[in-house]
Amino acid sequence: MGALHHGHAALIRQARRVAGKNGALIVSIFVNPTQFGPREDFSAYPRPLKLDLKTCREAGADAVFLPSVSDMYPSDASVSVNENSLSSTLCGGSRPGHFSGVCTVVAKLFNIVTPTHALFGEKDWQQLAIIRRMIRDLDFNLEIIPCPTIRESDGLAASSRNAYLTASERRLAPEIHASLLLASEKTTPSKVVAEALKRISKIPGARIDYVQAVDAATLQPLRNRRAEGRLAVAVFLGKARLIDNISLPAIP
């Protein structure tokens, strides 16, 4: 959605390696109104187009697709794409309709661009899981390639919304990731979540949206540490809603 940072640049560079010298690498930039809730930041969402185009060029993109809202959504549009299982929890639980907007716009972008591969970051693990499910269930002929979360030197996950943080909030924000890492050392999902909640709640000004340990594939509550999981959080810090997740490896 634009406001590209070094995490996006890493995705583009990886896509360049996938495409090779002879493949075409296309980046789409589109601030999608259908994935914003009524009280969310669509109008205020940053749109530094000149800087974004510079980032794309320097990272190796061959072209940038920049549709308008009217290009993507006719005034009488009446069809959307809904996912009814993976989207019921995490961000989907606190942002009704968000993933319908995501699935619809991604499906449209895939149909317009017709890529052979598409790269998505693991920072939004739920989005990645839902896009994979959509590709499978609707028989899109492309491969989804996940890419590891890119972090700042202090552990904060790179995000366009980090720009909303004040200087003092920015100093506090890395404690979210640190809390996840310490919590992941616990041996049961309930203890993992309890430890993460305890630590994040101590961050001055932090307002927790959710902290959940989920099965990495189904996104349902993780019952034990014998299956691979993800520890996922959404935390408000000032004006910014920050999401993050880390792996919870299976414990034999």
Which sheet architecture does the biggest sheet show? Answer: 3 strands, antiparallel
- Head-to-tail CA distance between termini: 40 Å
- What strand line-up does the widest sheet have? 5-6-7
| Low-pLDDT stretches | none
CATH superfamily of the largest domain: HUPs
Number of helical segments? 9
Total strands: the figure is: 7
CATH class of the largest domain: Alpha Beta
Q: Could you say what the CATH topology of the largest domain is called?
A: Rossmann fold
Shape estimate? globular
Let me know the average pLDDT: 96
- What is the name of the CATH architecture of the largest domain? 3-Layer(aba) Sandwich
Secondary-structure element pattern, one letter each: HEHEHHHEHEHHHEEE
Radius of gyration: 18 Å
| Content of β-strand | 15-25%
Domain module tally = 2
Structural class: alpha/beta
Q: What is the helix fraction of residues, given as a range?
A: 25-40%
Question: What's the short story on this structure?
Answer:
By secondary structure, this protein is α/β, with parallel strands linked by helices. The chain is built from 9 helices and 7 strands.
Describe this structure in words.
α2 links the parallel β1 (26-28) and β2 (63-65). Helices cover 36% and strands 17% of the residues. It contains nine helices and seven strands. The protein has helices spanning 6-19, 49-59, 69-72, 90-94, 98-113, 125-137, 167-172, 174-183, 189-200, and strands spanning 26-28, 63-65, 117-121, 143-147, 206-215, 229-237, 240-248. The mean pLDDT is 96. It is globular and about 45 Å long. The longest helix has 16 residues, at 98-113. The N and C termini lie far apart (40 Å). The strands form three sheets. It has a three-stranded antiparallel beta sheet with strand order 5-6-7. The protein folds into two domains: 6-147, 3-Layer(aba) Sandwich (Rossmann fold), CATH 3.40.50; 160-246, 2-Layer Sandwich (Pantoate--beta-alanine Ligase, Chain: A,domain 2), CATH 3.30.1300. α1 packs parallel to α2, α5 packs across α6 (125-137) and α8 (174-183) runs antiparallel to α9 (189-200). The protein has 252 residues and is α/β, with parallel strands linked by helices.
